[in-house]
Amino acid sequence: MQNSNDTGSLRGARAAAEPRADAGSPESRLVDKAESLPNRQKWSNLPLETSPRCDVGKLILVAAAFAAIFAGIGTATAQVYPTRPITIIVPFAAGGGSDAIARIVAERMRVSLGQPVVIENVTGAAGNIGVGRVARAAPDGYTLVLGIWNTHVANGALYPLQ
């Protein structure tokens, strides 16, 4: 006999209809798994608006609304860079170690970017004049500086920007 709270479950029907298999056998594991499944009858008595089923018409309407909203959004395209020559300011005299490194880097940049890269040696004030020139340049990415720790750290702490 089934309990009132056990209606629709497999436990009561299986216990009455067939004997239970051994606890360790594969058949008993299948029976235990089937008994642990949720009661599928519990949703059938609910009104339609509280049913877990989704309304296909509402789903199509929401999908169409999202498609209409996102249809007007364009994609952002990046500008082509570089479109003109790039300048690298070296704040030390020509022929030094920084100048040699800048010329090696500039050649590789020219090949990969397809634009000429100009090296300018702007000396004076322990590199402050060259770094100040780059700091006041237009912030468009076409003026770069090759500096070392004293042009970017020590001079910035010791001297005002000229």
Description:
The protein is mainly α. It has two domains: 7-71, no CATH class; 86-158, Bordetella uptake gene, domain 1 (D-Maltodextrin-Binding Protein, domain 2, 3-Layer(aba) Sandwich). 43% of the residues lie in helices and 8% in strands. Strands 2-1-3 form a three-stranded parallel sheet. The protein is elongated and about 75 Å long.
Keywords:
about 160 residues, elongated, about 45% helix, 2 domains, single chain, about 10% strand, D-Maltodextrin-Binding Protein, domain 2, three-stranded parallel β-sheet
CATH superfamily of the largest domain: Bordetella uptake gene, domain 1
Name the helix and strand elements from N-terminus to C-terminus, one letter apiece: HHHEHEHEH
Mean pLDDT score, rounded? 77
Integer count of domains? 2
Q: Label the structural class.
A: mainly alpha
Largest sheet: 3 strands, parallel
> Order of strands in the sheet with the most strands?
2-1-3
Q: What is the name of the CATH class of the largest domain?
A: Alpha Beta
- Output the CATH topology of the largest domain: D-Maltodextrin-Binding Protein, domain 2
Number of strands: 3
Shape category: elongated
Relative helix content: 40-55%
- Strand percentage lies at 5-15%
| Helix count, DSSP H or I runs of 4 or more residues | 6
The stretches of 5 or more residues where confidence is low (pLDDT under 50) are none
In CATH terms, what is the architecture of the largest domain?
3-Layer(aba) Sandwich
User: In angstroms, what is the radius of gyration?
Assistant: 38 Å
**N-to-C span:** 97 Å
